[in-house]
Design goal:
The complex is a heterodimer of chains A (408) and B (79). With 408 residues, chain A is mostly beta strands. Chain A has one domain: Beta Barrel (Porin), CATH 2.40.160. Chain A has 2 helices and 20 strands. Chain A starts with a helix and ends with a strand. Chain B is built from 2 helices and no strands. Chain B is flat, with a radius of gyration of 19 Å. The two termini of chain B are 34 Å apart. The C terminus of chain B is likely disordered. The chains are: A mainly beta (408), B mainly alpha (79). Chains A and B meet through helix 1, strand 1, strand 2, strand 3 and strand 4 of A and helix 1 and helix 2 of B.
Chain lengths: 408, 79
């Protein structure tokens, strides 16, 4: 897998350089995104975890050719997922912050995008640089876009050095585990996309993206289960070991149709495959209906995936194979999401520089039905529930978003 | 065929298509004055970037699939 990835780099670079060379010619004029600011509050609840977050996005033009946007977000994760509880670890509370700065430069029909993003968690630091170029053509009926991003990640493992079992989150003080040290993980993404006006009522967009990872791809806390008949609950725990490389391909298509009574229908499909032998399909249908000052949205999403070739819910021994994972995100499952949102447009009195403002609320309900990930917390040999025979895991998650947007 | 070769093939095909367009100007079959409906905010692919970025992060973290629908931010949040 490593040789394949290493060998692919010159080809990626050559393709990107070639296509960039074809598009670095500009003519006539296009438009930059509108100036706007969004303030978002989020609440995620399900699977033993609560995540509360805020996000701020501000975009402003500088002159006629440059638009700059800044995004700041914070998430506070608290609780304990089924992985944490199965491994016997305690509930925890952790904060993630992310800051991103993006610049769009318009030159004729060509828009260049340059950006950097920094994300910080106590045990995970990530820096991303991204570059994109898009070109309008055929009387602005077609826009071709190419993107590249490179991410450098540093992974740590936290070690609890001060414990108070009476607290909801018993670990009072954590440090980086010196035995684990610092692990690197690099990611590169190459994308190409096309947006095409089909008719006066419909538009379609297709995007193809290759993402390659190299480095520490395991989770330092996650453990596998292996059969250990006769001991305690009949299973043992051992650290997961993922391969150190991964390359994925994704092709997404998004089609929008304007309905005669001023409403929009949105159809999306994505096909995904990777070198871990995971294959997935995503299908989503959405509908938007304006009514007076309101706009109502609804969507239904279906997602299915196969499991990674080194995934198992219960291994026969701790060293059954070189790579072993019990990461439920790498298992086979179906997921269903139903979402609804409402947006209300209003005038802000006495503030002349605000052209438009909206208050928005959205709620999504996610259901995950796992096909080969079992709820190990229900293993109870005294009641006849042996490891490997416990019920399959199913989780429901609610995501709520409340945000204000202003255009100026 | 490797992913890299497939990507390069697609990139070259898109590039050649664009060059064809440059040599033989095509007449747009939807004129600018016929795009009023497409310019309606409800027809935007991403009317609320702050909201869609958050949901994309949730889906990325809870499943194995990624990419193919625009750029995503960094970070993990996956324990």
């Amino acid at each position: 897998m490593a040789a394949r990835r290493q060998g692919g780099r010159p080809l990626h670079a050559a393709a990107l350089a070639l296509v960039c060379a074809l598009y670095c010619v500009a003519s006539r004029t296009d438009v930059l995104p509108e100036d706007r600011a969004d303030a978002l509050a989020t609440h995620y609840s399900g699977g033993g975890q609560d995540i509360n977050g805020i996000s701020l996005l501000v975009r402003k033009k500088v002159g006629d050719h440059v638009s700059i946007s800044y995004n700041h977000l914070e998430d506070i994760v608290s609780g304990a997922s089924i992985d944490v509880r199965t491994s016997g670890a305690s509930p925890y509370r952790e904060k993630r912050t992310q800051d991103g700065l993006n610049t769009e430069i318009l030159y004729g029909k060509t828009t260049y995008t340059l950006g950097v993003t920094h994300s910080y968690e106590p045990d995970y630091r990530s820096n991303t640089a991204n570059f994109g170029i898009s070109q309008s053509m055929f009387g602005d009926l077609t826009t071709v876009t190419m993107t590249y991003h490179r991410t450098w990640n540093d992974v740590f493992k936290m070690l609890c050095v001060l414990h108070d079992p009476d607290l909801n989150y018993p670990c009072v003080e954590k440090i980086h585990d010196p035995a684990f040290g610092e692990k690197d993980m690099d990611e590169r993404s190459y994308g190409v996309g096309i947006t095409q006006i089909l008719t006066r009522n419909s538009i379609i967009s297709a995007n193809y993206e290759v993402i390659t990872d190299q480095g520490w791809l395991s989770n330092p806390y996650r453990e596998i289960l292996y059969a250990s008949p006769g001991s305690g609950l009949g299973y043992g725990l051992a650290p997961e070991v993922d391969p150190s490389t991964r390359t994925s391909n994704a092709l997404g298509v998004d089609y929008k149709y304007f309905l005669p009574w001023r409403a929009a229908l949105d159809l999306q499909f994505r096909y995904f495959t990777d070198t871990w032998q995971i294959r997935s399909e995503t299908a989503q249908i959405g509908y938007s209906q304006p009514w007076r000052n309101w706009t109502f949205d609804g969507s239904v999403r279906f997602y299915t995936q196969t499991h990674a070739d080194f995934y198992s819910d219960l291994f026969s021994s701790a060293d059954q194979q070189n790579f072993e994972s019990r990461n439920r995100e790498l298992s086979a499952f179906n997921s269903y999401t139903i979402g609804a949102g409402a947006s209300y447009e209003f005038k802000v009195p006495h503030v002349s520089w605000i052209n438009k403002s909206t208050a928005n609320f959205r709620v999504d309900h996610l259901i995950f039905d796992y096909k080969d990930f079992r709820n190990a917390l229900l293993i109870n040999p005294t009641d006849g529930i042996e490891a490997g025979a416990e019920p399959l895991y199913r989780v429901q998650i609610n995501v709520m978003q409340l945000f204000l947007s202003v255009w100026y | 065929m490797s992913s890299a070769r497939r990507f390069m093939g697609l990139a070259v095909a898109v590039g050649l298509l664009a060059q064809l367009g440059a040599c033989t100007p095509l007449q747009p079959w939807v004129k600018p004055y016929e795009r009023e409906r497409l310019a309606d905010p409800i027809m935007s692919f991403d009317p609320n970037p702050v909201d869609s970025a958050y949901m994309e992060h949730v889906f990325d973290v809870r499943g194995a699939a990624r990419g193919g629908n625009g750029a995503a931010g960094g970070g993990c949040g996956c324990n």
